[in-house]
Amino acid sequence: MDLATSTPLPAQITLIRSQELPDGIHSSTRLKSAVNAGAMLRLRRGIYVHTADWLAAPPWERHLAAAGAAAMTRSTPVFCRETGLALHGVPLIRTPDAVQLRTRHQGGTRLVPPPVMTGSTDPRAVVRRHLAPDDDERAASASVVALRGIPTRLHEHVAPPRTSRPAFRLLVGAGHEPPHQDLAMGFRDHWPGSVTHCAVEEFGLLLADTVPRMETGAGVVVLDAVLGARVRSGARLSLEVLEAWGGFIHSQRRLGRWRACLELADARSESAGESLSRVRMLDLGFEPPQLQVSFDLGGTVARVDFYWPGVGVVGEFDGKLKYTRGSGLSGASAEDVVWEEKLREDALRARGLKVVRWVWDDLQRPGALAARLHTAGVPLAKKS
């Protein structure tokens, strides 16, 4: 599972724009030479990145870099769908496979391939130059895939409620500006001075157009974050406002999924893993748990992710980011955080509670999650 984090991390990728140098030589000449030597990559026309930085960065950082390059090279880009959500800092289960933009051109979706990132050099040769001694074949293959680049996918604007597609196309062609907002902070955090403007589709429309196209679990992850104020940009909408944006969904099938995701959304979930866990439990037929229940452990209070009071079972989702993020915020080492978790779990068991834990891999393999919950004694939901 490729979790696109919403944590504001320092950028690992520097965006370099080609320009004329004081000696009269255009920097693109030198940058192209660096590309052919495997030291640099061409991300977009006139925008370059260091190869080592690109290969070392996580997928979501590469996606944001490609979006930043699009903002630097296109005149009036309006970001939409998963890219728009990523710029807001909404947690996504998977990193988008393309930079998503709106277009005034008619004809539906159009895919614009990226430039050849490695110039005249074979990508496999570039990877060999940058592999660490302990990298295996799997790491090499992943690096070659990363050098294929990130395309741009262009989408027509969404027609308002009770407006036909042909009529709306005429409006857009005449200069009508669909709703959008400036979100340059999504780039300034990463590349100060490089990207000065960033138009993103209106947040409510962004959600209504994107969530219904997602698998239900991924959609609930997004909506939980919005309702629970876990969006880095600060964007937040109430359930009532989200329901109203459903008027922009013209497909009955997608409208049904939108409503289903809204019904499942819960502001109390505190992470993408907790949100997805709830959906998986429902799909597997388990009794819905209570969320964020607190227990007095004699001087300290433990708040647990999930609790089934009828059987005395506590459920905890273990995400890898939990320990690294917790250590960064508290100043404690990751080992200290793990030890504190163990003591907390021991105290819960001392109260007669059973504790069951699961990780991302279990959410990818529902049978594994079901086995863990069954073994712990979590009951199935009663059939109505």
From TrEMBL:
Q: Which organism is it from?
A: Nesterenkonia sandarakina
Q: What is this protein called?
A: Transcriptional regulator, AbiEi antitoxin, Type IV TA system
